[in-house]
Recover the amino acids of this structure.
């Protein structure tokens, strides 16, 4: 008997029939003898409906109250799934974030989890119940309702699996695993039976939509064995077969794999915007003076490039989430330009970030040069470059996204699975 | 500066525009210098939508989980109203039942309030905020979500007003007060500027839909000054004018009024069903042996009639809510008939209960006889009779409802307001 966490997203919970299917799948695992905790999202479309309703009432809804409204979507889901399980003769109980004790900071709409209480979940598990937990939500130290931000149900599931030391966290989604790249862009993309945590983290940060990056960070921090698998398979698929499907995130490096120097996948993201400050003074601390106010405004900065200095002036370029571009420019104008000087701000929200990821590349050069060659052969101009130990990311004009992905997928021979460099 | 509780129902909260109107009205009261607590229902149609969704998932939804689902309607409402108030520059905060600390028993779907914590509400009021509280919901001693049953938001409002010792509880609804009878049935019905608590209680139990009976009971227990008034008036109506509109429930009897022996109103209800057990043994304790299992099944019994005994056998008749008829028959068949004997069960769910209410009738006879005369003149057969100190109720065939109401309204001259008997 193992302790297993399942997570089902909005599509899996998208209708009464689908909720009954989820119940069927969970019941199958329970009947196989496992202790089960199930984390669910709101029914697909429900969160958007609630946010639209709020916008109809208030053009700029108060964040605290928006979280009060938005969390009802998951609360409906947990109640519905629990009653569907009871109909199948499986004892179950639903718990909201506050009932579990999912304690977060007080950053409404993008709260971070501090601690998760085990007491209530353990009590219900010990009583033989399947525990259905509302994803995406928590409470701050004053008992206010918070949300973890979009896609936060993945994070809830992994965090709960970590808190309970679950044997495995199965994240059911509408794809059957992690691929060498997006199969909708590249038809010969290959599913990876497993992937290292570091690669998964880079893929998530590089724009792969399979898992929310914060959930991957959580998984890595607590080494939670996570498996991404499909909720669209036959619900009667035997448990032993389902248990080895999809893609498993691993934490132990395989020494043989290391030597083989693999590129694992290509990710593309169209969710960023590029901001350039021209001719700022190149003095010590200028980067911090630009980025600190951005961070204070709770805006995540991804890639950062600073050109060499010419006559004590430099260009400073970085990327932010596209939705935060307006706010970023406002912060720069109000707080940065008056101090740092600079000749003005140039923005571009029609960019794509393409990343080549592979744990192998840390010991091998040549990945970047092969990338640049493949792109130049297609006549694609590179606007920014950023590298990490196991990732090379480039920014190109958005219109080249698919072309660039296919060119790189082919350049690294990924149609045959993870490739040697 | 007074502490005022407002309550707005589903119709008042029925659209983003209406929610902004409610915010406007509350802001007006706040700006007049009052401390404000506002209790709201789910947007009209929302509770039914949620219950229908649950029924789609599960034909007989688990009560605990149904409450988890149903309470989201009010949670959406409080968030939306709080953000609308903030848009008007009025500081506001929404609180769910568990955030306030509305503690109930654990009878899901019809829980009763035990205590209400003042701590959080007082803290928010002291900080100068309007406090928006979700009606209809609470938590049981184990932290499970409960609901007070249909119409429970009235009860929430009155209970919170009682706990806070509020100066007045204003219940905004789609009628502009309590009438001598339903104006849709009797066009010359008159609005009552005030009504005694006892009369209001009898009217509520007799089927007047203005206030839920449990809310009136709560009001009486703690002598909460409650006013029923319209939410359809101009939101810019001056506070001093609005404060004296509608119908006020009073607790002090006016000695002059007592002598005048008034009949205050006529109420009609079509929500009951009649159950008769034929030829049960007329032994001591038989009534209890019939009614105790019904009570244990959480079914409310209203009128009870037992005929005189013939040869040690009697007929036993009572009324229950129409929706509980099926369950009642089941309980009788399983638990009562095997013990009490009896020749079988006869039910009738096409009945109406018509009640004449007036605090004056306790010192005057003649009300019942005038009733029976008026009904017999219209050829209406009386199926059951039940009397209390200030009410006479009769049960008739449902098809006579309007005719009986108009005949009685005229017989007591209520077209000229509350009448002497």
């Amino acid at each position: 008997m193992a302790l297993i966490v399942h997570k089902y997203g909005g599509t899996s919970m998208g209708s009464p029939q689908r909720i009954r299917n989820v119940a069927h799948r969970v019941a199958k695992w329970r009947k196989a003898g496992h202790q089960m905790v199930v984390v669910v999202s709101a029914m697909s479309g429900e969160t958007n409906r609630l946010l639209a309703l709020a916008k109809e009432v208030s053009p700029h809804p108060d964040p605290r109250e928006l979280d009060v409204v938005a969390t009802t979507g998951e609360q409906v889901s947990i109640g519905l799934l629990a009653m569907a399980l009871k109909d199948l003769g499986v004892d179950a109980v639903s718990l909201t974030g506050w009932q579990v004790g999912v304690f977060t900071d007080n950053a409404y709409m993008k709260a971070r989890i501090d601690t998760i209480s085990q007491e209530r979940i353990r009590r219900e598990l010990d009583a033989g119940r399947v525990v259905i937990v509302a994803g995406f939500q928590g409470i701050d130290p004053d008992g206010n309702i918070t949300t973890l931000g979009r896609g936060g149900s993945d994070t809830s599931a992994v965090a709960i699996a970590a808190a309970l030391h679950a044997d495995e966290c199965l994240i059911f989604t509408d794809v059957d695993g992690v691929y060498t790249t997006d199969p909708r862009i590249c038809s010969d993309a290959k599913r990876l039976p497993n992937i290292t945590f570091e690669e998964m983290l880079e893929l998530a940060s590089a724009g792969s939509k399979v898992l929310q990056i914060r959930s991957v960070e959580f998984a890595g921090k607590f080494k939670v064995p996570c498996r991404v698998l499909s909720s669209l398979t036959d619900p009667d698929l035997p448990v032993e077969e389902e248990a080895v499907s999809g893609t498993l995130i691993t934490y132990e490096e395989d020494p043989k794999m290391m030597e083989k120097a693999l590129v694992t996948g290509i990710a593309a993201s169209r969710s960023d915007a590029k901001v350039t400050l021209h001719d700022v003074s190149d003095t010590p601390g200028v980067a911090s003076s630009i980025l600190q106010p951005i961070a204070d405004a709770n805006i995540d900065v991804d890639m950062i490039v600073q050109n060499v200095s010419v006559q004590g002036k430099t260009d400073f370029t970085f990327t932010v989430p596209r939705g935060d571009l307006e706010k970023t420019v406002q912060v720069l104008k109000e707080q940065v330009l008056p101090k740092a000087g600079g000749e003005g701000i140039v923005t571009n929200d029609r960019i794509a970030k393409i990343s080549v990821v592979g744990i192998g590349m840390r010991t091998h050069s040549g990945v970047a040069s092969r990338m640049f060659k493949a792109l130049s052969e297609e006549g694609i101009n590179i606007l920014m470059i950023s590298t990490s130990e196991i990732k090379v990311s480039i920014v190109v004009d958005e219109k080249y996204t698919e072309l660039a992905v296919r060119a790189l997928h082919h350049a690294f021979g990924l149609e045959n699975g993870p490739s040697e460099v």
